[in-house]
Design brief:
Keywords: Signal
Protein name: Sortase
Distance between the termini: 81 Å
Signal peptide: 1-46
Structural class: alpha+beta
Strand order of the largest sheet: 1-3-6-5-4-7-8-2
Low-confidence stretches: none
Number of strands: 8
Order of helices and strands: HEEEEEEEEH
Largest sheet: 8 strands, mixed
């Protein structure tokens, strides 16, 4: 007759370990609370970062404005190149504020400071540089069709349509039955 396997009694933690468990849990909870309390304070004092795109633009061109790290849902951007523009949240979390502006047609050439202000007066600030130059990017059309005549655009469009039609005809063509 085979021997019956012996069962072990459930393991009991050492008495000193069992007594120290609540103290260890309390220390772990206190450390987690300290890290959680310090994180928002560190992030709240981080300076926002701002950008203007394109950074070089011709007078009368449009620029995109973006500031991240505000922590607010409102803001504004001001510059001698375009005046004051209100910024709106770029997403539901308001992680960044966005807007666009049209540079004055009579804006002076050279570098212009763009100041971004988060929230109301006295909020966090960030700056970016905008250069106004006669050869800068033409905002809106990106400079792609500014110097083309309507005839050139029509010829280019016709060539694209013909190429697409030839591609469709070639794909749809069936070989003759054998």
């Amino acid at each position: 007759m085979p021997a019956e396997p012996r069962t072990r009694p459930p393991a009991r933690p050492h008495a000193a370990w069992a007594a120290a468990r609540p103290a260890r849990l309390l220390a772990l909870a206190a450390a987690a609370l300290a890290v959680a309390a310090a994180t928002p304070a560190a992030l709240a004092h981080a300076a926002p970062s701002a950008s203007v795109s394109p950074s070089t633009v011709a007078p009368g061109g449009r620029v995109g404005l973006n500031v991240a790290g505000c922590g607010t849902k409102t803001g504004r951007a001001t510059s001698t190149a375009f005046g004051e523009m209100q910024l709106t949240p770029g997403n539901l979390e308001a992680a960044n504020l966005v807007g666009s502006a049209t540079v004055y047609r009579n804006a002076t050439q050279g570098s212009h400071l763009v100041t971004f202000e988060c929230g109301g007066p006295g909020g966090l600030r960030a700056t970016a540089s905008l250069t106004v130059a006669p050869g800068g990017a033409r905002g809106g059309t990106g400079g792609s069709i500014g110097t083309m005549s309507p005839g050139q655009v029509a010829v280019g469009g016709s060539l694209v349509a013909a190429a697409l039609g030839a591609g469709v005809w070639t794909i749809r063509r069936r070989p003759a039955s054998v």
